[in-house]
Automatic annotation (TrEMBL):
Organism: Sander lucioperca
Cellular component GO terms, alphabetical: cytoplasm
GO biological process, alphabetically ordered: cell division
Name of this chain's protein: Septin
Location in the cell: Cytoplasm
């Protein structure tokens, strides 16, 4: 019988005799210990961006993290993109904010969807994600597990063109090829091309098609019952806002006497961080301030575990097959009935007895000759 007893340790109140300190154990400081250790170690996050060229992927990434990761990139002309293959390019940058260090890795996919023939253009991307899972699995199964480098892709921002009537076939096939491997967050690129009413209609259409084709995009976790009402309201707004309609800009312009990042048009200014203009702020808050850790948890607990279970199953099946081919003695199946099992065991016993009798006779004959 197991008895569960719940104790409540009280935080000590400083008194002259310090009697309360005797009732204080100290494990209430564990969150602070974890926080200090995490801050000292630093954090890492791998973000993949995918979509056709010209969708503003590079600009949005620079806007999100206030950095410039694409200083030396080369833009291809139309002729060079006819037979272009998909590349995988990694950019890594160390960012520090208020003493917290973040190692950010951006995985870019130039060439995706740009060629005339886009048949299976997502294959190099799925292969790359699997390679990172495989490398992590090897490191985790090795002897030196102390300093494992986590290069698994934690999130994929997929850019959907603002023109058209929803998802294209290449969009559907890409997301279906990746939705079991990575957290997909669909974005409507260059949202300043559309009116608010057009954005709303396009969002509704994309949500309907995602459900229709069974595409599994990243699902926001449910709020805990003890969360405050403000957080619950923000979470509700994020869920209703997907897919995010975004605008990126690295240009600082003058608006209402203030300098803001945005785009200057003859008819006015589009501000990147104005929530009435686009969903950039909501995306940044979700990706960095509220759900970055959950994206990593889902990657580890769901996508990587599925890959790991599949690898172990394949290794077990291969090992069993090799044993059956190499073993001269038949292996009894687990589902063999008891009667049949006893019969086989009895036959083996009789065979061993006959061999023992023959051996005894041979030894006797050799002894008689001597």
């Amino acid at each position: 019988m197991t008895t569960n007893i719940r104790y409540k340790s009280r935080i000590p109140v400083k008194t002259e005799d310090s009697a309360e300190e005797k009732q204080y154990v100290g494990f209430a400081t564990l969150p602070n210990q974890v926080h200090r250790k995490s801050v000292k170690k630093g954090f890492d996050f791998t973000l993949m961006v995918a979509g056709e060229s010209g969708m503003g992927k590079s600009t949005l990434v620079n806007s999100l993290f206030l950095t410039d990761l694409y200083k030396d990139r080369k833009l291809l002309n139309a002729e060079e993109r006819i037979n272009q293959t998909v590349e995988i390019i990694k950019h890594t940058v160390d960012i520090e904010e208020k003493g917290v260090k973040l190692k950010l890795t951006i995985v870019d996919t130039p060439g995706f969807g740009d060629a005339v023939n886009n048949n299976e253009c997502w294959k190099p991307i799925t292969d790359y994600i699997d390679q990172q899972f495989e490398q992590y699995f090897r490191d985790e199964s090795g002897l030196n597990r102390k300093n494992i480098q986590d290069n698994r892709v934690h999130c994929c921002l997929y850019f959907i063109p603002p023109f058209g009537h929803g998802l294209r076939p290449v969009d559907v096939e890409f997301m279906k090829a990746l939705h079991e491997k990575v957290n997909i967050i669909p974005l409507i690129a260059k949202a300043d091309c559309l009116t608010p009413n057009e954005i709303k209609k396009l969002k509704d259409r994309i949500r309907e098609e995602i459900d229709k084709f069974g595409i599994k995009v990243y699902q926001f976790p449910e709020c805990d019952s003890d969360e405050d009402e403000e957080f619950k309201q923000l979470d509700k707004e994020l869920k209703e806002c997907t897919p995010f309609a975004v605008i990126g800009s690295n240009t600082v312009v003058e608006a209402r006497g203030q300098r803001v990042r945005g785009r200057l048009y003859p008819w006015g200014i589009v501000e990147v961080e104005n929530q009435s203009h686009c969903d950039f702020v909501k995306l940044r808050n979700m990706l960095i301030r509220s759900h970055m850790h959950d994206l990593k948890d889902v990657t580890c607990d769901v996508h990587y575990e599925n890959y790991r279970a599949q690898c172990i199953q394949e290794m077990t099946s291969k090992l069993a097959q090799d044993n059956r081919m190499e073993s001269p003695i038949p292996i009894l199946p687990l589902s063999t009935p008891d009667a049949e099992t006893e019969k086989l065991i009895k036959m083996k016993d009789e065979e061993l007895k006959r061999m023992q009798e023959m051996l005894n006779k041979m030894q006797q004959q050799m002894h008689d000759k001597d």
